[in-house]
Specification:
The complex is a heterodimer of chains A (303) and B (270).
Chain A (H helix, E strand, L loop, with lengths): L4 E3 L2 E3 L3 E3 L8 H9 L5 E3 L16 E4 L2 E4 L12 H7 L6 E5 L4 H13 L4 E5 L10 H4 L2 H15 L4 E4 L7 H10 L4 E4 L3 E4 L1 E2 L4 E2 L5 E5 L4 H14 L4 E4 L5 H10 L3 E4 L2 H5 L3 H15 L15
Parallel strand pairs in A: 3-4, 3-16, 4-7, 7-8, 8-9, 9-10, 10-15, 15-16
Antiparallel strand pairs in A: 1-2, 5-6, 6-14, 11-14, 12-13
Helix pairs in contact in A: 3-5, 5-6, 6-7, 7-8, 8-10
Chain B lengths: L5 E12 L2 E6 L10 E6 L3 E9 L4 E6 L3 H8 L5 E8 L11 E6 L3 H13 L6 E5 L8 H5 L5 E5 L6 E2 L2 H11 L4 E5 L2 H14 L3 E4 L15 E2 L2 E2 L6 E3 H5 L7 E3 L5 E3 H9 L1
Parallel strand pairs in B: 7-8, 7-11, 8-9, 9-10, 11-12
Antiparallel strand pairs in B: 1-2, 1-6, 2-5, 3-4, 3-6, 4-5, 12-15, 13-14, 16-17
Helix pairs in contact in B: 4-5
The chains are: A alpha/beta (303), B alpha/beta (270).
Chain lengths: 303, 270
């Protein structure tokens, strides 16, 4: 049985990837996710064009079938990350840098700086649902998505580019195809699903930002559907995510067409070791079903 | 139950010192000494507080120092706040026979339950309580009931010995043999306790603080090197602290920007 995965040139020991926004705040913690957690690759917390505090708390809460968050893209800003990059130069695991901006110029500026530090891939977060000025506005428009992706691509040379998409788009498959045309090397889907929770005793929204992004088991069917549709509209590989917390969830995404699988909220349910556990469960499933490599089942639910 | 706040009635408010109040809440919570809860003031913010009572009811102890805690101080008995928890690891003292506790300022808050539980288990525990001045000695009367040896130090000498709690610890550790030191207080003090224990070859468990968001080990906002203060901590062993370069040196602001612990402490005072 072989879980080894080559995803846009990243040589991963397994297909699991730490999703952006979870635990990716410093190099020592990311190293722990790789070494103790068993992730195949790790995505950093999204890096922005300037220092930003994000939203007040509550910014992350648990609901019945998932997490609802409006952390709001806090970032030291690319200008304040030199020390962190020095540490990240010493690491030996596949690293994906996530970036965001409020417009094309900001995306380009962040991309240019981040590319200097040569992460294994760059993920353009054109789909954060939690700030007015960033993200989703791009990811719901084919034209805006393409403009951002081609501007970022221009700045980062040979570093592979991943476009992270939102399920809020009315036609995510068309957006993905547009990103491919604009130079994306892979698609990451899905970001969180917009949601809200009101405390009926307080008579107020719980999240300070009122609205947030839903993740976790509740959104898995949404993610599966998006990945399935994207698989039919692009040739580039897909990093599938949304509600993966065990090996069977990961297998389901791979059958929908994913090459690699992201885990975020799964850390809440099973701790940092969720990656290792999911891999063991995948191996167990493969053994029981006489599947030797994930290639055999990639996209097998189609046609 | 899911990890979202529950609106809970404040049953009783006790003024502990001029700047510190304890809020007793009608909320059942299981917690070990050192574990904490997140308190939510709807529309304002949510922040972590160590639990100073647990069981059928719980309590948090709050020092008035910023916008959130000022709003807490305006609340009256019968008002409601949101609460979720408990979170974190708490102190572990299963194998301890003779320990020493050292607390500075509002660091006495997580120490209170610890001292009371250790007393109940018959573990002998001298306590060193440090404060800026006599009327800010938090939980002095209640701690007195848990130990035969309560050493008080104040910065201005208005009560007990003039000086720092760490000076008292150094003297005590030279004279008596402990198999554990438990501490909570400002980070420079915790770093000093760590060094004193290292020199004396005594294991320690220190309760630390970072800016926190989720409280349950997901977002990474409270990272102390490879550790999450909300989940791996807030109580850390000297072994864990040896593995971080950040302890006593660096902390992350709300943005995730890494700054000196001095700058972090100044920001927290705002």
């Amino acid at each position: 049985m072989d879980l080894k995965t080559n995803f846009i040139g990243l040589k991963m020991q397994n297909p699991t990837v730490l999703a952006s926004g979870i635990l990716g705040t410093n190099s020592a913690l990311m190293k722990r996710v790789f070494e103790e957690g068993g992730a195949g690759a790790v995505t950093m917390k999204s890096i922005g064009p300037e220092e930003r505090n994000g939203h007040e708390n509550p910014s992350v809460i648990e609901l019945e079938h998932g997490l609802l968050n409006a952390v709001g893209l806090p970032s030291p800003g690319f200008q304040n990350m030199e020390e962190e990059w020095k540490e990240l130069e010493k690491i030996n695991f596949p690293l994906i840098a996530s970036i965001y901006g409020a417009n094309i110029e900001q995306f380009a500026a962040v991309a240019k700086n981040v590319a200097l530090h040569k992460p294994d891939a760059i993920e353009a977060n054109i789909s954060c649902p939690n700030t007015k000025e960033h993200g989703q506005i791009f990811g719901t428009s084919e034209e805006a998505s393409q403009a951002i992706i081609s501007a970022v691509k221009k700045e980062i040379g040979k570093i592979p580019l991943i476009a992270k998409l939102t399920p809020q788009a009315s036609n995510i498959a068309a957006i993905a195809a547009g990103c491919e045309k604009a130079g994306a090397d892979a698609i990451c889907a899905i970001n969180t699903v917009a949601g809200m929770c009101i405390d009926i005793d307080a008579r107020k929204p719980i999240l300070h930002n009122k609205f947030g992004g839903l993740s976790g088991p509740a959104i898995k069917p949404v993610g599966i559907k998006c990945v399935y549709q994207i698989f039919e509209s692009v040739k580039i590989p897909i990093l599938g995510m949304g509600g993966i917390s065990n090996g069977k969830d990961a297998i389901e995404y791979i059958q929908a067409g994913a090459t690699a699988v992201g885990i975020g909220s799964g850390v809440f349910y099973h701790g940092i070791e969720v990656f290792k556990k999911a891999c063991e469960e995948m191996e167990h499933w493969m053994k029981e079903n006489n599947v030797k490599s994930l290639k055999e089942i990639r996209g097998i639910a189609h046609g | 139950m899911t990890e979202k706040p529950t609106m809970t009635t404040i049953k009783k408010i006790v003024q502990e010192t001029p700047s510190i109040k304890t809020y007793y809440l009608d909320f059942a919570i299981d917690a070990k000494p050192g574990q904490f809860a997140m308190a939510w003031l709807p529309g304002l913010d949510e922040k972590p507080f160590t639990l100073t009572a647990a069981g059928k009811e719980c309590a948090i102890t709050v020092q008035c120092k910023g916008k959130f805690t000022e709003a807490m101080f305006r609340l009256k008995e019968g008002n409601k706040i949101g609460i979720r928890g408990s979170y974190g690891n708490g102190f572990s003292f299963d194998k301890i026979k003779k320990a020493c506790i050292v607390a500075g300022g509002c660091g006495a808050a997580p120490i209170l339950l610890l001292a009371e539980e250790m007393k109940a288990k018959g573990i002998e525990t001298p306590i060193i309580l440090g404060a800026k001045t006599s009327n800010e000695c938090l939980f002095k009367e209640r701690l007195e009931k848990t130990t035969k040896e309560l050493y008080i130090t104040t910065d201005d000498g208005s009560l007990g010995e003039k000086g720092y709690a760490t000076n008292a610890l150094e003297k005590l550790i030279a004279k008596e043999k402990f198999d554990g030191v438990f501490g909570c207080g400002p980070e420079p003090m915790m770093k000093a306790v760590f060094e004193i224990c290292k020199k004396a070859g005594v294991e320690c468990q220190l309760n630390l603080e970072r800016y926190m968001r989720c409280g349950f080990g997901v977002c990474g906002a409270c990272a102390l090197g490879k550790w999450l203060v909300c989940k791996d901590g807030p109580v850390f062993s000297e072994k864990q602290l040896k593995e971080t370069k950040e302890f006593g040196k660096r902390a992350m602001l709300k943005s995730g920007k890494s700054v000196s612990t001095k700058e972090f402490a100044e920001w927290r005072q705002e």
